Here is the input.
Amino acid sequence: MPNRTAKTPKSLAKSVVELVMTVAIAVGLALLIQAFIVKPYRIPSPSMVPTLAIGQRVLTNRLIDHPSVGDIVVFHPPHGADPPTPVCGNPNQGAGHSQACDAPTAQESSQTFIKRVVAGPGDTVQIINGHVYRNGVREKDSYIVPCGPDPSCNFRAPIKIPPDSYFMMGDNRGASDDSRFWGPVPDKWVIGVAFFTYWPPDRIGFL
Here is the structure.
């Protein structure tokens, strides 16, 4: 009797084609998901301590382009955030002045940052000892590393956030390069909202 378990060259070739197609589809779906739905991101600095540590990894929902106050957001900052020093679109605001920056440079940076949204379109913002006062009300900020009289933590004169823009700050208020110095971020530069941390294992969970 013929050996029915042995595959013919034709059936073997078909199996190889099916395997290649399956792998190609899986890779294609993974790339589509990363490009349009969920993107991983590694925390590069201590600006979000204690919420996020250096090297921690998060997943970002790319379908959300209009974040809410309190969301942790991945985005491209204004070009004014590029080294060597932050630049505000208004030379009378930002570092060394009484007002935080409400006028970002027009160009978008190629850098990718992660910060928390502390104010949205139309909000007024003051920063006193590292605490944000949004529309006259202090934020509930038990998640921050506070800072005191340092000039980078005090912008007591209020500013107003422009339409379709978001004011971003790191939770590590004394060690964060953020909107205080280079201004609000237009929503078109928002990549997505971080919603889950998957590394290291002892910090796995929703944000």
About this structure: The radius of gyration is 23 Å.
